[in-house]
Amino acid sequence: MGRLVGAEQIREVPLWVGRDRLLEDLRDELLVQRRKVLVLVGQGGIGKTSLAVKLLEACGVEVRTQRLTSACAFGRVVYVRVQEGLSFDGVVSELARGLEVSLSDGMLPGQTIDALIGGLQRSHCLLVLDNLEDLLAAGKALSVEWGQLLWALVDRSHQSQVVITSREVPIDLADPRDMSGIPSSVSVRLERVDGIDEDASVELLRKLRLRDSEADLKWVAARVAGQVQVLTLLAKWARKPGMLRQRPELVTADAKPILKVQVAKLREAARELLKRMCMLRVGIELQGLTFLRLYQDDESETGRFWMAAEIQFPVEFEISEIDETQELVNELVNVSLVDEQYDEKSCSENYRLHRVIMEFMQAEYALELPELIKSVYSFYRSGTELNKPKTLEDLRPLLEAQHFAFQLGNYEEAETLVYQIEHYLKPWGHWTLLQTLYKQLVDRIPESSQPYILQRLGSRERDWGNWNQAETYYRDGLKLAEKHKDRSLIAGITGQLGDIERNRGNWDAAERLYRQYQQICEELGDRSGIAWSTSDRGANELGRGNIDLAESLLIRLNRK
Hints:
By secondary structure, the chain is of the alpha/beta class. The chain folds into 4 domains: about 5-190, P-loop containing nucleotide triphosphate hydrolases (Rossmann fold, 3-Layer(aba) Sandwich); about 200-265, no CATH class; about 265-385, Arc Repressor Mutant, subunit A, CATH 1.10.10; about 445-560, Alpha Horseshoe (Serine Threonine Protein Phosphatase 5, Tetratricopeptide repeat). Helix content is about 55%, strand content about 10%. The protein has 25 helices and 12 strands. It has a 6-stranded parallel β-sheet with strand order 1-5-6-9-2-10, with helices on both faces. Helix 8 packs parallel to helix 10 (about 255-265), helix 22 packs parallel to helix 24 and helix 23 (about 505-525) runs antiparallel to helix 24. It is globular and about 95 Å long. The chain starts with a strand and ends with a helix.
């Protein structure tokens, strides 16, 4: 029996109509044509994820029982739902878990990609990357590492296959030398997912229990262009025959008109909760929704929310408060405005908005976004007292708190939180996520703090062997450290510039920099720095073959 990884992220498709022929064609692409990469591209709410899930079932995956059937052609299936806030390192961790690939601390991005491709070479695997658009901007990967991984899936030799769903065509699937940005049709099939046809639209509306006449349903189908999410929303709103004909302005392929009416029909408390959820990047549990529902940014009454954020400790709620939140959430789930998903790890339901609804709510309440962000930030801030986190998911409250602090323009707080995050990510080897956070902050924090981030950016590039880029960051940091007379930092960066020259084989330049490093440390009385600079000088002499001098420096170091 094969292995299914990521089943907890797969959403069951409650209704399926209109795409059986396409489904059969795509199944043949994977099982007969053995196309390396299949990309399902289409607008939000058109049904790309549902199509991907049904394709899994057609290939031998039992979604309900979370297992592979004996007839499944793949030895393992790995499903990863990409979402905003999930880093390259986070996705890589999921892929490595699914492929049973060991990733060691400090691996460079290229080495990590090599390891993943090795896993795809060892077994016939089906990899699903759902919702990839959150990692793209105008079709281009947001990070170099993501671009390299996407191209490796196409270019490198392996016996596995990949299904991607995205609103945009991922440009990085094309050969970097090809200026057109169009992937090769030999290895990649781009399938534009359009709306379902008229007959299928009518069938779907019937299954959603609309009792309108056949003529009225066909009229609706023609106006919405088979947009599945819009059809679902219309069916939830129009419970009586003829209602849609009476409001023709609502029946379009754009979800906005019907969402306006649907949101307006909600109870005020349900509408307020929906509004407060629209900034969430990941799903949260019922207690988190209760925090958002009841949050007030002041110290009145018990001041428990304000205090929880200050002391970074979760709020305790009354059972009646949780029950009221559950009632409101049920109302929102029933009208298809909120997605509900079971989290096996926490043994609880997680809730989030469908992407189409999130974008609508953010546009509708644009003027209130700063306050909405503040409430979400306070929620995550209240949960940042961590208990021995071991995974990125354990670190999620801290990562989200940092993100929303940045969104609020509270850059010094965002910087402080990055240093807390760094404490965990460095030993875990999540360098690319750290690099992304550093780059995001460096131009936003006070100038006196920038050298510390520039130094970290330089160290990441140095560890990846990018000497020129590392030197640029170090020299920019050194210039600012000198401007602000931060002698300890000047010493450290000078020594790191020495490392760059030593790695290049420029022994004399490295020696000069190490001596400067050592002199500053001696003036500061920094015994640790003196030891490190002596060790560096010894390594430098060893590199150029002066074994006796290297030995004398190391002996001197031991005596100290």
